[in-house]
Structures are given as C-alpha cells and as structure tokens.
Amino acid sequence: MIETDMSKLTKEFSDIQAELLPKVKLENTFKKDEIKLIAGVDLAYWEEHGKTFGTCCIIVIDYHSKEVIENVYSYGEITVPYIAGFLAFRELPLIMKAVEKLTVEPDLYMFDGNGYLHYRHMGIATHASFFLHKPTIGVAKSYLRIKEVDFQMPENQAGAYTNIVIDSEIYGRALRTTKNVKPIFVSCGNWIDLDTSTEMVMSCVNKESRLPIPVRLADLETHRVRKQLAHK
C-alpha cells in the first residue's frame, strides 16, 4: 500500500514538474540595477515523537550594502514524504509560510539548493519561482550527480568556474568563490541567465564563507532555529 502511494505521488509530482518546465526561462527578465534586495532561503529538519518537523529561514539583505534588512522563519510538521528529485513538494509549504511573514519584497531569491541543475531541471530554486514570481538562483554546497556525469574542478582562483554539461546542455556551474576553498554549484532558478547568476553570487561572497551572504546567513539561522524549536 505504501509503495503504491509513493508511486502515485511520484507520478503526480513528475507530471507537475513536466508541466512547469516549458515555462522556465533562462534569461534575465529584469535590469541589473533593479536588484536592490536579495533573499537567502534555507531549510532544516528534525525528528520528534516519530514525526518530521522543519523550519524555513529567509534572510533579506541589501544587495549593495550587504546589510541584513529582514529575518523571518516558519516551522511546522512535514507531511510530504521524502522522494529523491521532488524535494520542492516537501519544502514549498514552509517556504511560502515564511515568505508571507516578510514585510519587504525581495527582488531576487537565492536558495541553498539546486535550480536547473536537477534531474528534470526542476530543483527547489526553479520550482519555487512559480510561487514567488521573482528571479531565483540555486546555490548548492554539494554536487548533484546526474547521468553519471562528474564536474570538472575549476582553477584555484576566486571567480573561476567550469560549466556542468550533460547531454550537450549546460545545467549549471562549479564555481570557486574563494581561492583554496572547494567550489559551490550554481544554477539558474528561473527568469535569470547563468552569467548573471554567477555574477550575483560572486558579488555576495565575502571572506567569511564560500557561500553568498544571504544563503550563508539563512543556513546559520536554520541551525539556530532548529536548536531552539527542537528542545521545546
């Protein structure tokens, strides 16, 4: 029965992703000087009394000054089971719950996760864009291996990158944001091109982390909030 339900969910989720994919545009739908506020989004999970709970943290920064403008989070029980490749369905409810708490409107969202660099080009950054109605970028700390294709290591200098090419299509980039530090994996979410995504990520990196500031701060906040909530 459980296997049947999972199979049904997988088919349902796959159909939704297939329906959304033709609407993905890997090109800028904005002018760069219009980007003033960037949001970083991350989630964390924990188990309690046999149930799975999660928190979504969103940190909004001023793109130019890099100052934190707003910090919100949501939390709740996770009711959608984990199915590889369909993480968005599990995370979207908490993401949108956190977005509703924002008093400012981000011009762009960066996700701690993938976008176009996904089995069906529908990672969380891409999928969520259709609910956020804003350009999105995927920033992953680890590489999602697709069709047995490995990435090529970029040169050891800040800003160096190699394209991740699968079946003659560019899925994303392995980007070294800091010298002597392992790369991160950047991909378009939606309504933005890969060069601009790379530029935006690099412009938000400082000496404290290989991750862009909004994503790093959201990641740190999820650990803080999880620790706080898991002990209630």
UniProtKB/TrEMBL annotation:
Subcellular location: Cytoplasm
Cofactors named for this entry: Mg(2+)
UniProt GO MF annotations: deoxyribonuclease V activity
Site label Interaction with target DNA, positions: 82
Taxonomy, superkingdom: Bacteria
Listed Gene3D superfamilies: archaeoglobus fulgidus dsm 4304 superfamily
Catalytic activity: Endonucleolytic cleavage at apurinic or apyrimidinic sites to products with a 5'-phosphate
Enzyme Commission numbers on file: 3.1.21.7
Keyword Magnesium among record annotations: yes
Coiled coil, from the record: none
InterPro entries: Endonuclease-V (IPR007581)
Keywords, sorted A to Z: Cytoplasm, DNA damage, DNA repair, Endonuclease, Hydrolase, Magnesium, Metal-binding, Nuclease
Predominant localisation class: cytoplasm
Binding site for Mg(2+): 42, 112
Record-linked HAMAP family: Endonuclease_5 (MF_00801)
Function: DNA repair enzyme involved in the repair of deaminated bases. Selectively cleaves double-stranded DNA at the second phosphodiester bond 3' to a deoxyinosine leaving behind the intact lesion on the nicked DNA.
Family: Belongs to the endonuclease V family.
Record-given protein name: Endonuclease V
Gene: nfi
